[in-house]
Amino acid sequence: MIPAILPTYNRAPLAFAKGEGSWLTTMDGARYLDLGAGIAVNALGHANPALVEALTEQAGQLWHVSNLYQIPQQQKLADLLVEHTFADTVFFTNSGTEAAELAIKMARKYWYDKGQPDRVEILTFTGAFHGRSTGAIAAAGSEKMVKGFGPLMPGFKTLDFGDHDALRAAMTDNVAAVMLEPIQGEGGIRVLPDACLKGLRDLCDQTGVLMILDEVQCGVGRTGKLFAHEWSGITPDIMMVAKGIGGGFPIGALLATENAAAGMVPGTHGSTYGGNPLGCAVGAKVMEVITDPAFLAEVNRKAGLFRQGLEGLAASHPEVFEGVRGAGLMLGLKCKALNTDVVKASYGQHLLTVPAADNVVRLLPALNITDADITEALARLDHAAASLAS
Ligand SMILES: Cc1ncc(COP(=O)(O)O)c(C=O)c1O
């Protein structure tokens, strides 16, 4: 008999009742150190007092009004995002997938309005993940995600990650945009080198092709800058944001330059819940905390500490780990053992980690994880690896 919850997930037998900072407590009182943060969502830890206050204060005033009206909380968050990024304008969504959908629509409308309605193709890369909508799975193109769900939305071409020649050859007059994650999350914490991002930006500038960056997982302070692309010095035309921006409350955003957004006039897009007062009140508080240079400096310091520890861990368990990858607090352990076995062994040590493709275990802690919790996490990973080796 099919379970009451549609069985699309292989769930671990863990149910949590309470969270505080980097720790989760199960229904029966066991404490787990959380290095997954809801897959890079709880950027400021569980039950962060400032976020709880922002949410409850707003909840006592107003939950929902339609986008038919002015929403001051939405205006505040949009202003903050515009102030701190390349973007001139923002559309709020409830998830990363919805932001991806709008990115696709925006890029196509841009060329349609320029009198090039056939310029619809969007180039993507192997290992990409942009969500589970019909558009987002067509964009990622992997067999695992699309099998059985055809016919797929046309107009996407998936290129091999890192194949520069194929990319140059694919940049034809039909291409509307390239869409990519500066660091692939689901794909296995695969970092696109800064030089590649710069080269791609140059190629986009030469051809007019729009650059869409998906910073749903790697954005909002995760790499030690507000957004990951800032390390390379380039800016995109369009960017998807979600996960960390709500600190656990579901909210996403699509950021764009005025030029890229030119086609999105009244009536071309909408959302009932996107930009609701609750999500935006929390998002504005997250932005306030994360845009503080002292906060980002701490993320970088802790990332250095964690990475150094992980390098040591990998070196002392060569039969379990091949190495460490990633940037900031978006880290991956490339495994020699099965990554899902490492995740299970970590559960045994009351430590939560997240598997990814390419046999990688993802470590995406709260950005304000304490030094003591990093030390504790390293010790638990060490025990988990030892238990596997034996
Ligand atoms: C890079 C990236 N893009 C898009 C998405 C989809 O976001 P959501 O699950 O909020 O729809 C995800 C989710 O994991 C992601 O990691």
TrEMBL record:
GO biological process: L-arginine biosynthetic process
Catalytic activity: N(2)-acetyl-L-ornithine + 2-oxoglutarate = N-acetyl-L-glutamate 5-semialdehyde + L-glutamate
Residues with N6-(pyridoxal phosphate)lysine modification: K243
Miscellaneous information on this protein: May also have succinyldiaminopimelate aminotransferase activity, thus carrying out the corresponding step in lysine biosynthesis.
Residue sites binding pyridoxal 5'-phosphate per the record: G96, T97, F129, D214, E215, V216, Q217, T272
Residues annotated to bind N(2)-acetyl-L-ornithine: R132, S271
Name the record gives this protein: Acetylornithine aminotransferase
Pfam families the UniProt entry points to: Aminotran_3 (PF00202)
Species: Pseudorhodobacter antarcticus
KW Cell inner membrane (keyword) present: no
Entry note: cofactor: Binds 1 pyridoxal phosphate per subunit.
UniProt subcellular location: Cytoplasm
GO CC terms, sorted: cytoplasm
NCBIfam families linked: argD, PRK01278.1
Family membership: Belongs to the class-III pyridoxal-phosphate-dependent aminotransferase family. ArgD subfamily.
Cofactor: pyridoxal 5'-phosphate
Enzyme Commission code: 2.6.1.11
